Amino acid sequence: MIGLHGSFVEVFGIGVFIKGKSKIGKTTLLLKLLNREHFFVSDDLVIFKKDNFSRVIAFNNGKYIAHLREFGFIDIIRTFGIEKVKESSILNLILELKDEDFSISNEEVLGLEFRKYIINPNIDIDILENHIRIYKSEIYSKT
To answer: In the chain, what percentage of residues exceed pLDDT 70?
Structure first.
């Protein structure tokens, strides 16, 4: 088990861990995705555990809030509804926010390797969703 700083959201059924340096926009991106009807798992601290099937599962940290420095705390359940909250999700993809152009690499979490997209914090949400859709199709075409 490990706790990592970042946000976790489920996009089109794909578990996405959002990481990056402090104040780069992790929570802002999380909220933009929630506004697009995706699912909240955790913000600020994400708990990861490996299960018996060699999957890495992300768990909520016990809080259903997001913190934006400009606005304060946002109650996710009141704002988006309980139906938009998940207690856990399987990790499939890592997004690392950096002031750089889009690139692809891999990163290890709990001994397993995951695809990582390095993206600019100002990425267009439509473009990001398309990258996630393409990744999802790649995952399911392997099975």
So the answer is: 99
**β 112-119/88-97 pair status:** parallel
DSSP state of 62: S
Task: Report the C-alpha gap between 128 and 115 in whole angstroms.
Answer: 14
- For the cut 60, the answer to whether the pLDDT of residue 143 exceeds it is no
CA dihedral 100, 37, 41, 117 (to 10 degrees): -20
**Tell me, what amino acid is at 36?**
R
Q: CATH number of the domain that 45 lies in? A: 3.40.50.300
Number of domains in the chain: 1
For residue 113, the surrounding DSSP H or E stretch is: strand 112-119
Structural domain including 56 reads 2-141
Residue 80 belongs to what H/E stretch? helix 76-80
